[in-house]
């Protein structure tokens, strides 16, 4: 009896250790994946929203991605899918992703980014690592958001899906074979995306997965892409149709918003005061008439007021509340503040629905939105609750590169 009890205890310890190591491995994977657009919009010549869906089948994923801001106008996207499943595929995918990110960091530091060099160097790096029969499917994608040019090298990845302004879907197929230890040459192509407003890049795990109807999801992806305005809608289409997940799921969804005088339905500038917070909420409610999230607006406008223009960070706010001096401090700071808060409301129509885009801009110093990762992983923490609540009560929130302007989406 004692021997069985001891064996059971040892097995429980082994299981706990294995679970702990799996959790560490997954956290390491998340550190390897790079996203320079975490709750950020691309605010170059036009505003674009970049979102990701990453759902590994196992703890160690054969898929990996990166999204990098090269400069004010250029953005780079990287997708890799290791051959097969398990540890070998994961090691290869993570190795090339680490190298690509390191090389991009250096190129950004020295302001000498080159897609050609990036592909050649990462290929040379991986060739001695890959096994004789192993191959990688890879996407290298470079956007110039000013000239609306796209450069790409696709190594046996599924086609890009692009939707133009006439709601036609354009497929861009691979222009290179899979990357292997025998690879020597590659091809880079380019195309104009001036008339494109929506993009979808994805690995084959999604399109090859069986659906509830018994056919591969590839039969549905184009129509679902057309019907999706956001990543959340695309994600819902995918998960509603598949039977059981059979492989890693990864996609990048980009939507270029038409925010101009044609789609603008109302705009107003507010003072930095508690009275203005109340005034703004009443004004917003009268404009939207239940078509927008009043809760998200209140939270984000209040953030613009206290964190943006008044410069009260979360730690100071917490201290002031504990000392019962919060409102007293607000009134004092308001008297010296001449900064404004600008609100713009847009209405965007698609073939199947309408969406409201609300943008709130303060005149403060902004903040690094990468801080939100910590907040969203622990929503019970005091700091950042307003942003968390806003995200939960809208279809997504996105800050500009400075962090002093935020927009959120709602579906009418």
Automatic annotation (TrEMBL):
Q: Where is the PPM-type phosphatase domain?
A: 45-256
Spell out the SMART domains in the cross-references: PP2C_SIG
- What does the UniProt keyword field contain? Hydrolase
**Care to name a GO molecular-function term for this sequence?**
phosphatase activity
Protein name per UniProt: SpoIIE family protein phosphatase
């Amino acid at each position: 009896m004692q021997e069985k009890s001891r064996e059971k205890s040892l097995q429980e310890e082994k299981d706990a250790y294995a679970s702990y190591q799996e959790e560490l491995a997954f956290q390491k994977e998340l550190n390897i994946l790079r996203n320079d657009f975490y709750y950020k919009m691309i605010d170059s010549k036009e505003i674009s929203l970049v979102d990701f869906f990453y759902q590994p089948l196992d703890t160690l994923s054969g898929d990996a991605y990166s999204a990098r801001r090269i400069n004010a106008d250029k953005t780079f996207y990287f997708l890799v899918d290791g051959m097969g499943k398990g540890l070998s595929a994961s090691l290869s995918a993570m190795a090339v992703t680490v190298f690509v990110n390191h090389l991009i960091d250096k190129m950004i530091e020295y302001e000498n980014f080159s897609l050609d060099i990036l592909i050649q160097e990462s290929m040379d790096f991986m060739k001695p690592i890959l096994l004789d029969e192993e191959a990688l499917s890879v996407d290298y994608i470079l956007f110039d958001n000013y000239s609306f040019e796209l450069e790409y090298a696709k190594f046996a990845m599924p086609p890009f899906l692009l939707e133009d302004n006439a709601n036609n879907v354009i497929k861009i197929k691979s222009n290179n074979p899979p990357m292997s230890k025998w690879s020597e040459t590659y091809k880079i192509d380019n195309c104009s995306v001036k008339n494109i407003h929506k993009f979808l890049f994805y690995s084959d795990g999604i399109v090859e997965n069986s659906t509830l109807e018994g056919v591969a999801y590839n039969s549905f992806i184009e129509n679902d892409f057309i019907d999706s305005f956001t990543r959340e809608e695309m994600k819902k289409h995918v998960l509603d149709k598949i039977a059981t997940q059979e492989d890693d799921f990864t996609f990048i969804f980009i939507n270029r918003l038409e925010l101009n005088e044609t789609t603008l339905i109302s705009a107003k500038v507010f003072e930095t005061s508690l009275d203005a917070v109340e005034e703004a909420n009443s004004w917003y409610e009268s404009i939207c008439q239940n078509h927008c999230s009043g809760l998200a607006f209140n939270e984000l406008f209040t953030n613009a007021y206290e964190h943006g223009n008044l410069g009260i960070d979360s730690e100071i706010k917490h201290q002031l509340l504990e000392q019962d001096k919060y409102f007293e401090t607000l009134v004092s700071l308001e008297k010296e503040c001449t900064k404004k808060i600008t609100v713009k409301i847009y209405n965007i129509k698609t073939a199947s629905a309408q969406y409201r885009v609300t943008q709130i801009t303060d005149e403060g110093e902004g903040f690094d939105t990468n801080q939100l990762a910590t907040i969203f992983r622990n929503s019970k923490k005091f700091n950042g609750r307003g942003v968390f609540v806003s995200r939960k009560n809208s279809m997504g929130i996105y800050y500009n590169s400075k962090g002093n302007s935020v927009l959120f989406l709602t579906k009418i």
